[in-house]
């Protein structure tokens, strides 16, 4: 399916819907039909919500999670344990972990995982910012004492974890990873709250 200046409005809508994760041609057609048949109640509010998100959503300056403010609500919450940083790949992983309510520390969002074939090297992620954040915390009231690597059990996730261990080793910090309950190849976003809570509580040292 191609989109160009000569394509109809419906063809262009289908093209961009197919760009979304989990949407193939058939599901895109169903969604497009639903939106066009419900313009006033669904399509127009959706357009407004997307425009608001485009204008207002940004990355938290501290942890890089999606936020509507320069500092997200988690980083700005003084009740959170600043000595614990949980490193995740995407903002959706933060949402998954927060859903269970078992983690009381703070987060750091990498913006993905290392993937050489996709051209995603360390410079494309927020790894340097993580190292600096940890170093800067040493002179603060609550220095970082433990970094938890909550990365999916995929090849890319595990490669990223090993790279982070090497980067963090000079700091002398305790570096742990999520433990049992995470199947090989599993994505955090698809795990239930109990599994995530068990993996957090039974985390293991990496360095």
Radius of gyration: 20 Å
Query: What strand line-up does the widest sheet have?
Result: 4-3-5-6-7
Determine the structural class based on helices, strands and strand pairing.
Answer: alpha/beta
**Averaged pLDDT, please?**
88
* SS strand fraction: 5-15%
Q: Compute the number of helices.
A: 7
Largest sheet: 5 strands, mixed
Note the gap between the termini.
48 Å
The CATH architecture of the largest domain would be 3-Layer(aba) Sandwich
What's this entry about, in short?
This protein has helices at residues 9-18, 25-37, 39-56, 91-100, 127-137, 155-168, 193-201; strands spanning 58-59, 66-67, 81-88, 105-109, 146-149, 174-177, 204-205.
What does the secondary structure layout of this molecule look like, with pairings?
Layout lengths: L8 H10 L6 H13 L1 H18 L1 E2 L6 E2 L13 E8 L2 H10 L4 E5 L17 H11 L8 E4 L5 H14 L5 E4 L15 H9 L2 E2 L2
Parallel strand pairs: 3-4, 3-5, 5-6
Antiparallel strand pairs: 1-2, 6-7
For this entry, give a set of tags.
alpha/beta, Helicase, Ruva Protein, domain 3, five-stranded mixed sheet, 7 helices, elongated
Describe this structure in words.
There is one protein chain. With 207 residues, the protein is α/β, with parallel strands linked by helices. The protein has two domains: 9-56, RecR Domain 1 (Helicase, Ruva Protein, domain 3, Orthogonal Bundle); 76-205, Dna Topoisomerase Vi A Subunit, Chain: A, domain 2 (3-Layer(aba) Sandwich), CATH 3.40.1360. Helices cover 41% and strands 13% of the residues. It has seven helices and seven strands. It has helices at residues 9-18, 25-37, 39-56, 91-100, 127-137, 155-168, 193-201; strands at residues 58-59, 66-67, 81-88, 105-109, 146-149, 174-177, 204-205. A five-stranded mixed sheet has the order 4-3-5-6-7. Strands 1-2 form a two-stranded antiparallel ribbon. A hairpin with a 6-residue loop joins strand 1 (58-59) and strand 2. Helix 1 (9-18) crosses helix 2 (25-37). The chain starts with 8 loop residues before the first helix and ends with a strand. The mean pLDDT is 88.
